[in-house]
Structures are given as structure tokens and as C-alpha cells.
From TrEMBL:
This is Transposase IS116/IS110/IS902 family protein. It comes from Actinoplanes philippinensis. Transmembrane segments: none annotated. Residues 277-358 form the Transposase IS116/IS110/IS902 C-terminal domain. The lineage of its organism: Bacteria, Bacillati, Actinomycetota, Actinomycetes, Micromonosporales. Residues 4-163 form the Transposase IS110-like N-terminal domain. InterPro entries: Transp_IS110-like_N, Transpos_IS110, Transposase_20. It holds the Pfam family DEDD_Tnp_IS110. One of its GO terms (biological process) is DNA transposition. GO terms for molecular function: DNA binding; transposase activity.
Length: 408
């Protein structure tokens, strides 16, 4: 077997090839792209016997995605994507001086996959449609997170110079098209106080609001109420920043809607889409996010426990002497944990079996968030069983063990 450490950069790869005894037989710097991958194959082939298979080559690299990784997996190599923190800890075992270089990092990665591959997660080849779902689902979620950040900035700015806008537009939500359009029309307290009922109603009508006259009158009244504010020149400076933030939010709203359609289209093409959509608390967007983060490669999760561990819903036990405590996992896939938390929150509202389990946990004085984590952990196990058997979720089957009397 050969063990390859691949320290990647934007335009090149530093690689080192080790034999089973840990001897470095070759080190090289390869360019990114097709030429670099061709040279990589030639380097590896030069040290393999004629009867060797590509799976006899183990590659360790600090990423699990990208064209380079996909090419390595497609060639049949065993590829292990490691966290940079894992590599840094292993580097400390090999050198205490703190010295660091690309060549030394390649040596660290090769030694790591040679000595600790049983502790590393192998990169599994997801299907092309799963990769496509991951791309659009992550992009969609990233834009939503960006919208939240810009909304908080907008709220902070309005609080500093235009508190009347927060009170007037709060029922509309600041990310709504109507609130953003009104802020774009009148970003200062003086301009907002001059808005007429007709102008406000036109904006509300475009956003398909109901009871236009009453809502427009209420907004106008708040905008014309006297509030604390800033000097005119300061308010004008704030207004310039608010206009820019409003333009960004309007663009984000448009692109989020566009990407939502892409998420639905790609997710609907996946063969496991119906299984995901049958789960309690999961819709198209959440289903796409969960599929994107779990992937669909065969054999990636040996059992439900391994899927729960990857999801970050399974608790961690820490025991030393007489002390024994159970904690939530803090090292996890943030996107997956967020999706599963949202699923659990929706499932307790619509599925009686899930609700009964949640109520039982709350009855044992488990906090709300901790109870949702345990509910999410149980739902991950149910999802694993459904995917393994290619069956849709059935409430009776999933929760019958909690309703049937225990055997004597």
C-alpha cells in the first residue's frame, strides 16, 4: 500500500508518498488542474506493483470537496478528508518546534493516514444529483443567513436615528418587500412623516396586504408621532447607509426566491426525495438541506448510531473517577444541526408520536432545547431506517414501541 499526503493550495498541491514503513519515497509539487492530476497518477503508478489496485493508494487531504477530490475518488483511490485541526494536532506529535511548511504538512498528512486511518472518515462518492442538491441548498441557506445579518444591521441603524420606523414597520417585518420599499422611499424621519395614506396603501397593495386603509393609517400615525432623533446632517448620513442596506436586502429577497425554485427542482429529481418528505417536520427545503449534508453514498453510515454521531445529535459522555456527565456535542456540522433542530420543532407540532415523546422529556424536567435535540436524535434514527429499507415514514411503526406494554 501507498500513503499519500496532499497539502492543497489554490494553484498547487504539495504531495508526499510514503511506504508501509513510513519512509518518504517521493515528494513533489503538482499544479492544480488536469495536468497536475495526470502527474499525480504517474507518480503513484511508479511505486505500485503491476498487480496493485487503485484502492491500495490512500490519500489524505484537508478537504472533502472540489474537482480535485472528486477526481481522486473517481480514480478509485481511498481518500480521507480531515479537519485542519486534526492535522494540526498530529503535526504536534511529529514536531515540537512549531515549524510549518507545505512540504512538512504533506508529510504530516501522509503519516496521519498511514498510522490513524481507522480514526478518519473516508470521503464517499455521492451521486451527481446529491452534489447538485448540496450546492443549491447551501447557497440558499447562506443567502438567508446573509439576509439575517443585514436585517440586524438595518435594525441597529434605525434604532440609532429613526426609531419610529421600527415601530411602524414591525408588523410588516423589516425583510418584507413593503417595509423595504417604504424605507427606500423615505429613509429619514422627516421624509417618512410626509408619506400620504395613498402612497403607503399602494406599497401595501403591491405586497398583497389586507385591510390596506387601516394598516396605512396606523403606519402613518406612528411615523408622524414625535420621537427622539438625530441632527439632520447625521440623519442624512444614516439614511445613505440605510438605502444601501435596503438595496442589498431587496436583491437578497429576489435571489433567495430564485434559488428556492432551484432547490425544489433539484431535490425533486433525487430518488430518496419521497422518503425525506415523508418524515415528520420535513418539507422540500429542509429535506434538501438534510439530504445535502448527509449525502447519499452507499455504506457511508454503518448504522443509525454512526449517522447520529455525524449529525451531532447524539450526546457525549464524560467520565472521570466518580464524576460522570452527559453533554451536547459542540463539534458538528452547523448546517445539518440547524436543519434537524428546525425539523424537530416542526414535528412536535404536527406528529402525535413525536409530541408524546417531547412531552415525556419535558415531564422529566428536560429543557426545551435539550428535548428538541433528543427528538432530533430519534428522528435521525428513524430516517436512517427508512433510507436503509427505502420505505416512507409510518407513525405506527416508528413509535409503536412506546405505546405497546413492555414484555414481562
Amino acid at each position: 500500500m501507498l500513503f499519500v499526503g496532499d497539502d492543497w493550495a489554490e494553484d498547487h498541491h504539495d504531495v508526499e508518498i510514503q511506504d508501509v514503513h513510513g519512509r518518504a519515497v517521493r515528494a513533489a509539487r503538482l499544479p492544480e488542474g488536469v495536468d497536475g492530476m495526470t502527474r499525480f497518477h504517474e507518480l503513484v503508478a511508479g511505486f505500485l506493483p503491476d498487480d496493485a489496485k487503485p484502492s491500495d493508494v490512500l490519500v489524505c487531504i484537508e478537504t472533502d470537496r472540489g474537482p480535485w477530490v472528486r477526481a481522486l475518488v473517481a480514480a478509485g483511490y481511498q481518500v480521507y478528508g480531515v479537519n485542519p485541526k486534526q492535522a494540526a494536532r498530529h503535526r504536534e506529535l511529529l514536531s515540537l518546534s512549531g515549524a510549518k511548511s507545505d512540504k512538512a504538512d504533506a508529510h504530516t498528512l501522509a503519516d496521519m493516514v498511514r498510522t490513524r486511518r481507522h480514526q478518519l472518515r473516508q470521503v464517499a462518492a455521492d451521486s451527481d444529483i446529491a452534489e447538485a442538491v448540496k450546492v443549491v441548498a447551501r447557497a440558499h441557506q447562506t443567502l438567508i443567513w446573509e439576509r439575517t445579518r443585514h436585517t440586524l444591521r438595518l435594525r441597529a441603524a434605525l434604532r440609532d436615528y429613526f426609531p419610529a420606523a421600527l415601530a411602524a414597520y414591525q408588523p410588516l417585518t423589516l425583510t418584507g418587500a413593503d417595509a423595504l420599499e417604504l424605507l427606500a422611499k423615505a429613509p429619514t424621519p422627516a421624509a417618512a412623516a410626509k408619506l400620504t395614506i395613498g402612497q403607503i396603501s399602494a406599497v401595501l397593495k403591491k405586497a398583497r396586504r389586507r385591510d390596506l386603509v387601516a394598516k396605512a393609517a396606523a403606519i402613518q400615525q406612528v411615523l408622524r408621532t414625535e420621537h427622539l432623533g438625530q441632527a439632520d446632517i447625521v440623519a442624512g448620513a444614516y439614511a445613505a447607509t440605510v438605502r444601501a442596506t435596503v438595496a442589498i436586502l431587496q436583491t437578497l429577497n429576489t435571489e433567495i426566491r430564485t434559488l428556492e425554485g432551484q432547490v425544489e427542482a433539484h431535490f425533486g429529481q433525487h430518488p430518496d426525495a419521497e422518503v425525506y418528505l415523508s418524515q415528520p417536520g420535513i418539507g422540500v427545503i429542509l429535506g434538501a438541506r438534510v439530504l445535502a449534508e448527509f449525502g447519499d453514498a452507499d455504506g457511508r453510515y454503518a448504522d443509525a448510531k454512526s449517522r447520529k454521531n455525524y449529525a451531532g445529535t447524539a450526546p457525549i459522555t464524560r467520565q472521570s473517577g466518580k464524576s460522570k456527565t452527559v453533554h451536547a456535542r459542540f463539534i458538528h456540522n452547523d448546517r445539518l444541526v440547524d436543519a434537524l433542530h428546525m425539523q424537530a420543532g416542526a414535528a412536535i407540532l404536527h406528529d402525535p408520536g413525536v409530541r408524546a415523546y417531547y412531552d415525556e422529556l419535558r415531564g422529566r424536567e428536560v429543557g426545551h432545547n435539550a428535548a428538541l435535540r433528543q427528538v432530533g436524535n430519534r428522528l435521525v434514527g428513524i430516517l436512517h431506517g427508512c433510507l436503509k429499507t427505502t420505505t416512507r415514514y409510518d407513525q405506527t411503526t416508528a413509535w409503536s414501541h412506546r405505546t405497546q406494554p413492555a414484555a414481562a
